[in-house]
Batch of 2 targets.
Target 1
Amino acid sequence: METRTKPLDELISTILSQNTNDTNRDRAFQSLRERYPTWELVRDAQSEKVIETIRMAGLANRKGPRIQQVLREITEERGDLDLGFLEELDPEEVRRWLLHFHGVGPKTAAIVMLFSLGQPAFPVDTHVYRVTGRLGLRDATMSVEKAHDHLAQLFPVETYYEVHLNLIRHGRQVCHARQPACETCTLNDLCAYYPSLPN
Ligand code: SF4
């Protein structure tokens, strides 16, 4: 069942998620919310304190200032931190608007669009990238940035949410980065990588 998060919550959470796992991302997000009940307080807090609060997410020296910078830029541009206006824009406008912030790339923009706004976008994280490459759903040398548009065109829009989540689950549970469980994988008869394995 699809549940939507607030766009700004999703944006901050996705910045926190870079190069860490979901548990540490969630702990850092929770810690931030407990110390600063509003995003305005995070924006105006001392940089060192924000860094200290999100330390468990890793790369806190980068993520803290990046989060505060995005919050300041949104405020300068919009006058406040209400992202409700995004609901009224078409997907391409939303994508462009999100991408113009420093530190917001195609994956972050697509996550906010898909999970918060219910708009058509196909986020490509490390699992989605690896699994689609092995299955042969994209060219092996395609960049992760290009894979966003390519996979968005490959799958029907109404399936984005489920396909994204299922690819992540498959990557975590079966198609591991180091030792994919190919022998027992239910997709091995469809996979481009499997036949290349030594017998
Ligand atoms: S057969 Fe192996 S490489 Fe292909 S999708 Fe399954 S686990 Fe991944």
Target 2
Amino acid sequence: MNECRTGRPVSDGAEQLLGVIHPVHEYGQVELVDYLGADRTVARAARTSYQGDEGKNEEADRKLIRRLWVDKHTSPFEMVALTFRIRMPIFVMRQHVRHRTASLNEWSFRYSECPDMFYVPARDDVRSQSSTNKQMSGDPLTDDVSDKARTLIDGLNHQAYATYKKLIELGVAREQARVVLPVSAYTQIVWSIDMRNLLHYLRLRLAPDAQKEIRAYAEVMAMIVRQGWPMIWDAYSAAEENA
Ligand SMILES: Cc1cc2nc3c(=O)[nH]c(=O)nc-3n(C[C@H](O)[C@H](O)[C@H](O)COP(=O)(O)OP(=O)(O)OC[C@H]3O[C@@H](n4cnc5c(N)ncnc54)[C@H](O)[C@@H]3O)c2cc1C
């Protein structure tokens, strides 16, 4: 471990989370790989508005951060940033990348081969189509139907991967062989986003109408914010409760 000195605000909670891999479903992962700023960073940035001093104590910071979030004075929250490494199926990634205020770099299947890793819903999580909302799923299906659905999904994943490997063996370029891969294949990204926009992401992707699979990723990121930035989480969750 490097003994390095830093003059910048550090979050004890975030330090403990750095490098910890949180599993999501069978193959998914979320890891906090880097961050900038702590709760104090937001309060300190906000006090610049009136050239105020550092604040009396933690309680003063907590109150200020709550006030800022309620008043939608959101720019101080942009002074904090988080970088995650995330492994997710391509169908989740398609929803995830819609959040344009983040920066990302994705693993390229032009450079390296896609691994044999595909999403199959758990037996108790094969869901029916909602009868009231055209976009959403409804109740879980019976075990019998779930087993049939999982066999179909798993079979197609295997067939697609076997075809992919055959194309590679034939000498087809990786960038073309990948056209047979289903959206259940896993991809990996490094994803960097400031706290203001991460909280916006969480609001949308923790909501009951978000797809359950992306919600599982949002829940891990919410846990990370709660542990690493407790005052910011407190301000956000209090506002959500009152919404
Ligand atoms: C439940 C749910 C269902 C969805 N269904 C669909 C769907 O059927 N089809 C589909 O295509 N997408 C769908 N989406 C994606 C959705 O339309 C948004 O693209 C996504 O949620 C990102 O939200 P955002 O634009 O607020 O976030 P970000 O892209 O992170 O942007 C954050 C904020 O920045 C501002 N901003 C960003 N870009 C612009 C811009 N170009 N102009 C002005 N302001 C901007 C806005 O204030 C925005 O809220 C769905 C999302 C959810 C949560």
